[in-house]
Specification:
Length: about 500
């Protein structure tokens, strides 16, 4: 018997140089939540996970053999092309094809208008949060419960109108209580393959967990498709129960808490710590928070709950640039957060960004100074890229360096590359800035007493000297030139 629905994760590590280099695969929790809810209502679900697969042909063979009636495909901007190709294959085998996730929500017209070799591929896009909408769609397809008579009656969909326009059905209210959801259906995942990939690349393995949905902040470059500027959290007890379950069932070495922001509600974190300790559910974990939330108390509670590493979106050492990004954070807060983590023995990882509109040479120097003063344990630097639907995108829309927004595919964004015309500076300049930041940071660690053999010190000093000279020279050279592919350094 074919399953009632097959959910597809279209990320192929074999086709993605960035993923190959990082080798930190996580299966998509969104799909696993959908699967959990559908199974709770009696539907049979299979997962087709492309993570460790090589070719589209494997999905073709699956479709030929299994013939699911419905295929639901999740998508991000990075995997849009694969999602559409897999959708074509599903359509050729007669399945109802549904797309959902951040990219289809952000740009549904891209999916609805896509024609494969002939017919339209997508029957619909599930917009925003998916659990209840997909359940309604499945009920309608199977005539179960009180099924909707037309797709237009189901809230939370984007459909294709007669003239090809996007038709929106009424908005779907957000799920009020996240504790109602079953834990993600991780049993559908080939856990051994993930475990082995992690162990081979890093010597430990990590699973993901999510406690909250949404983020109340409004950084101008952040695409907030799906959960918008809303914020809901599970109860600390519900989350701790899942951690206990993960510890007993899978015993991962690490957890990645994938909330946009941990600790938006101040009292939540100490309650979570208590719930974790009470259940003996500690698993070393890493999470992301904002520097303005990183109080001594919050960080101490995270540490006691098992936190070993915190990612901060530091972005820049220039207040002017942070304000332009509408980051809602101050440079002093970045410094305080880093110092507090160091005192508590929590590792820090900074996300830095260069090339944001308004950033000038002096601002880059301030970012260098920030890295040198705060000495994060790790950091990565991204050249700012404008995602559709953001204020940043609107700001640079008339200066984009590709033909239309339809071209804003991952071929462009995967490369750490400047995507809009600036008055000064080009991609080549920023790529060297990224390397320069790294050398400054290495040198600052040496200056702070990090032990290193003489040849290593020499390499860093020489590299730093060369980098400083080069970026100063490049800062004066106009023109963009053509740039070879080079993946972004990390996330
Ligand atoms: C965890 C995470 C990661 C993890 C793991 C990804 C994974 N496989 O789970 C890692 C660190 C690997 C990662 C990497 C990247 N990420 Co990321 N990530 C996230 C994060 C923080 C959480 C994802 C999550 O689990 N959400 C919780 C679930 C419940 O929500 P959901 O996935 O949206 O699913 C719901 C709905 O969308 C819908 N739905 C989803 N799929 C489907 C499918 C169907 C059929 C249906 C009906 C419904 C449906 O229903 C689900 C349940 O309600 C999100 C931000 C966010 N808060 O969502 C960013 C986010 C998804 N990432 C993003 C980006 C840009 C990236 C990177 C490109 C970053 C980088 N520069 O390297 C890479 C790309 C990786 C790749 N090669 O594809 C963007 C995507 C933007 C876009 N439009 O595509 C987001 C939205 C962050 C942002 N605001 O910019 N990411
Ligand atoms: S970048 Fe982070 S803090 Fe800013 S709006 Fe996006 S999720 Fe929220």
């Amino acid at each position: 018997m074919p399953p009632d629905i097959t959910l597809v994760h279209p990320l192929f590590i074999s086709k993605d140089p960035v993923e190959q280099r990082l080798m930190t695969p996580y299966f998509p929790l969104g799909l696993m939540y959908l699967a959990g809810v559908l199974r709770q209502q009696g539907y049979t679900v299979e997962l087709f996970d492309c993570t460790f697969r090589q070719e589209y042909g494997e999905f073709e063979a699956y479709m030929r053999r299994v013939r699911p009636r419905v295929v639901g495909i999740t998508s991000l901007i990075t995997v849009r092309r694969h999602a559409l190709v897999l959708g074509e294959i599903a359509k050729q085998h007669g399945a109802t094809v549904i797309f959902g996730g951040p990219d289809p929500t952000g740009i549904p017209e891209r999916y609805l208008a896509h024609r494969g070799s002939g017919d339209f591929v997508a029957d619909m896009v599930v917009f925003d949060e998916g659990e209840h909408t997909l359940l309604d769609v499945m009920d309608a397809l199977h005539g179960r419960g009180n099924p909707a008579e037309s797709w237009q009656e189901i809230p939370g969909l984007r459909l294709r109108g007669e003239n090809g326009q996007v038709v929106a059905t009424p908005p779907r209210p957000l799920i009020p209580d996240l504790d109602e959801l079953p834990f993600p259906a991780r049993d559908l995942v080939d856990m051994d393959a993930y475990r082995e990939a992690w162990l081979a690349a890093h010597g430990y393995w990590s699973l993901s967990l999510i406690n909250t949905r949404g983020c109340p902040y409004g950084c101008a470059w952040c695409q907030k498709a799906v959960f918008g500027r809303t914020y809901r959290s599970r109860s600390p007890e519900n989350s701790a129960a899942e951690m206990r379950f993960l510890k007993e069932t899978y015993a991962p070495d690490m957890l990645r808490v994938v909330d946009d922001i941990t600790g938006v509600r101040r009292q939540w974190v100490p309650r979570w710590r208590d719930a974790i300790l009470a259940r003996d559910a500690v698993i070393p974990f890493e999470c992301l928070t904002r520097v303005n939330l990183a109080t001594e108390e919050m960080l101490a509670a995270l540490k006691e709950a098992g936190c070993v590493k915190i990612y901060f979106g530091a972005e820049s050492g220039s207040q002017k640039v942070l304000d332009a990004m509408e980051k809602g954070a101050r440079v002093e807060q970045i410094e305080r957060a880093a110092a507090r983590c160091k005192r508590l023995g929590i590792r820090t990882y900074f996300f830095m960004m260069v090339g944001y509109p308004g950033e000038e040479w002096e601002d880059l120097l301030l970012s260098v100074q920030l890295l040198r003063r705060t000495l994060p344990d790790e950091f990565s630097t991204t050249i700012a890229y404008p995602l559709p639907g953001t204020k940043f995108y609107e700001q640079v829309r008339d200066r984009l360096m590709f033909q239309s927004e339809w071209n804003l595919d991952w071929e462009y964004t995967a490369q750490n590359r400047l995507l809009f015309q600036r008055d000064r500076y080009n991609t080549r300049f920023y790529r060297w800035v990224v390397r320069w930041f790294h050398k400054e940071w290495e040198d600052a660690w040496l200056a702070a007493g990090k032990p290193a053999p003489w040849y290593e010190r020499g390499r860093i000093k020489l590299g730093l000297w060369a980098m400083r000279l080069l970026v100063r020279l490049l800062a004066r050279v106009p023109g963009t030139g053509s740039i070879r592919f080079q993946p972004a350094p990390g996330r």
